[in-house]
Amino acid sequence: MTAALSLPLRAAIAFLAAAQSIDSLPPRHSPRSVAIDERLAADYSIRLGDTIVIAATPAAVGDTVVVSALVRRSRDPSEVARGAYRIRVHLDQLQRLVGYGDRVERFAVGTDGRTATDSALAAIDAAAFGFRAYSSREIAVESSTTFLVVSRFHRAIGVITIVASAIFLLCIMLLKVDERRRDVAALRLMGISRRTIVRSVVLESALIAVLGSIAGVAIGAIVSAFVNWHYQRVYRTPLTFSLVTAQIVAIAVGLSLGLGIFAGLLAAQRLVRQPPLSLFRR
Amino acid sequence: MTDDGLLVSARDLRRDYPMAGEIVHAVRGVSLDVRSGEYVAIVGPSGCGKSTLLNMLGAIDAPSSGTLTIAGNRVNGLKDREATLFRLRHIGFVFQRFYLMPVLTAMENVELPMAEAGLEKAARRSRARELLTYVGLGERFRHRPTELSGGEQQRVAIARALANKPELLLADEPTGELDARTGAEVIGLFERLNRDGTTLIVVTHDEELASAARRVVHMRDGLIVDEQHR
Amino acid sequence: MILTLARASLVRHRARTLLAILGVAVSAAMLLDMVMLATGMRVSFGSLLLSQGFQIRLAPKGTLPFDTDATIPDASNVVRTLMARPDVVAVSPVLGAQLHVEHGATSVSAAALGTIAAVQGDYKLLIGHAPTRDDEIVANDALLMALGANVGDTLRVAAGFDPQLRTFTGQRTLRAVGRVHFIYLSAGERALAMPLESLQAMEGASRTDRASLFMVRLRAGANVESARSAIEQTVHTVSAISTETAIQQVEQRLSYFRQLAFILGSVSLAVGFLLVTTLVTVSVNERLGEFAVLRAIGVRRTRILEQIMLESAVIMIVGAVAGLGLGLVTARYLNSILAAFPGLPEAISFFLFQPRDAWLSLGLLALCGILAGIYPAWRGASLPIGPTLREEAVA
Predict the structure, then answer these.
(1) Are B106 and B148 in contact (CB under 8 A)?
(2) Which residues of chain B are within 8 Å of residue C297 when distances are taken between CB atoms?
(3) What was the ipTM of the complex prediction?
């Protein structure tokens, strides 16, 4: 359990030095307060003001406490699939309940800027025994391996999806343009130039690509909203799973427009290269 | 065929269809009898209903009213499946634009109706060869339609129409896409077919083709207005 | 003849046919990958858990095996209690710890497992023998290579390291008597195994007679769920987890991938459907005249439908077979990404190929192809003959 301190560094160290042994604290008679996970509250119908008993083991006597707050999960991806409940207890009470003595697992220290962080790290490592100090950034890098893996996976899926979509788009555009070959043949026989025909087909393809892109963005936004709604409901978390940003929209639209126009150009050029009469005959 | 030798007996055939919000009366009460072995040409200006009449005679199109009997079978009122089977067994159709399957060879195009009728491969191959030789294409079995001239394609189409030994051969402007010389060849072929016993009904603008027929039926505005026998 | 027509039609538009096959192949590959993803983890994890024949695992109450640093007290008594049951044939207690290992000038940290060699199910011996004396250990390749050591070498092993004082605590000199492969560890994870009591002693008073995990092997035919439930009621300090429960819990942790597989698989099918519909529609539209003529000469509507569906089926089948190969390649690549999950046992595959998956993908794709093609095909084969011929003539 963390004891979050937001005091200036010297004051924090002074606090540690002056801490009394846990065993010397006078016993309390009135129930102390705890904060519980809102999931725990929902699943077991616990309300604010209710008293509950907390103990280290099922057989132990434990302490009666009052629920004074409900805590919502943070948007932390590492918490998403974890079903375990969380409660926040006063530090000394938890130490006593689990027989931990005057010990904690870690301290979180707030400092005033990057320079203060670096000097604090050096001072703590030099002054204190039995533990190491790390900046939050170092910890974040270490603990983010899982998300890097998931992120790489997403990127790979994204690339595969883009390649697949490109092939589908090319396929469909080529088919649709090929369908117009008799029209193209008739125009050529009339004397319309290849260039004009290609431009006309490309323009048509571009229009389809634009309309398709707009529809695609709308569908993507709806699906993204649905994905978030679904996963937030399943995992009971406020975490955002899918985000449609301006950059993503720009990439998607750019790709689909580019591919659509390219496919139209390719198909049109294929058609105008052939003798018009052969287009009728096929 | 009926006892009196009638192959085709049409009574008061009508065909109406909607077009652009109006009803078009393409055929407005046509009665026609054709005997077995006859060679009939139906002529008339464009839009007089002659192709529509031919389609009804070929069970391609169902009449709006009237009765039609071909080879003793009541044709009007047939369901699609029955009409298709009827065409397969009793009717051979030749189109103005040949309508051969471009992906098949001449041989395979002629085999097509026989395959549908369930004839075994060896038998239909043999008959296809025989028919193609009959129409003068003995050396062109393996050619695809794109490798044949217009006249040759039409002759393949005629061979295909004869595949299942139909009682009745119908042709819609068979020389319409051909030059005079090739058209004459096809006319000659029709004459030969008729001499060999095939009953022919052709729709045509071609005077040469019409004059080859022994009976000419004139149509105008959906009705038969005149008939000539030669 | 229909076969001939279908084949000839496909060959006639080679570029279009190849492109359609490619499109179907990509769809099939993605679909196969998603089917593999949806089932792979469960199958490979289940195989892994049962690979040594232990059906039940006991972890500290409320935790999953090795999910926390918590340990189970009174380990020897727990073993006695379990062995007294008639349906239990073996119990393997395991204690986990982090040790520092030195060889020459090289010092690394490694995962340590305290086991009983006779019943252990955590490693497979490759060279040498299992450690039976309290001065013996076995190690994996990752540890030996990191230290530059071999079987037979002496290593200095310590339980604690003070970074400020740069000193070790609980140090011992141990000999590596075997090279092993640890079944449940991730690739590249350095690890060693030693007798349980040795590790307990090294870890000090906090670990005396404690274990992190018990693995229980039941006799053949025993009811796993009954045994599990009975054990949990008898031994109050543990949560008893059957293989099935363990799989379910891990699946729940990684349920995201299953859901992703479902969503992407559905998208693949939908896009494949769209592709086939477009392909069949275009193909039919440009042959309306042909179909009308076929019907005019007496070919049944259903025969024409057969031809169109046959063409569609050929593209689907060829595409699906190509997609199978492509899917296996992409699955391998995607699996290599996910294999980097920290702490994931090396033997776990997210994408596990089973022939059943291939059939399922093929079946889904075939169904999709049939549904996609049937309407445009039926429409094309059912147009009225006369008007169609007229329109095609005008066109």
Answers:
(1) yes
(2) 87-88, 92-93, 112-113, 116, 160-161
(3) 0.81
